[in-house]
Amino acid sequence: MSNDLTTPKSSLGDRIRQLTQKLRQESEIQAHATARVLGAAAAIAQNQDALIDEVVDMVEDDLETQAAIADAQSYTVEALKQQFEDFATAKAHFNLKARSWAALVNKLNQQAAAPSGSTPATPAQAKSTQQDVVQKLEAIDAKVDGLRADMNQVVQLLTLLVEKELN
Q: Are 18 and 145 in contact (CB under 8 A)?
C-alpha cells in the first residue's frame, strides 16, 4: 500500500487510516516535544531556586560573621584590666585617647558596633573578604550563564513547536 493519499488504488478507508496514523504520529511528536520543554522549564526552575538559596546563604553567612565579630569585640573594664598592666598600656595598644577605663571601653565598643561599611581590622582581612565575595559572585555568574543557556534551549524548542503548529 502506498503512502500517497491520492493513489487511485487507495480506497477511502485506506486514506482515512493513513491520515489517522499521521495525526497520531504528529501528536506523539508534539507530546514528546512538550515533555522536553516542560522538563527543561522544571530544570530551570530548580536551578533558579538553587541560585536564590545560594545568594541567601551567602548573605546569611555575612550577617552571621558580622554578628560574631561584634560579639567577639565586646570589651569590659574588667577584661581590659586583666589583659593590660595599666591604663596607659591599654590606650597605647588600641591607639585611642581616653580619660578612664570606662571611656576606653565605650570607645572600643563603639568601634566594634560601627556600621558594616567600616573597614576590616587589617588590610589582609579586607583583601581576603574581597576575594571571598568575588569568588562567590563569579560562581553565581557562572550559574546565571547556565540558566541563560537553558532558557535558550527552551525558547528554541518552543519556536520549533510553534513552527510545526503553523505548518
A: no
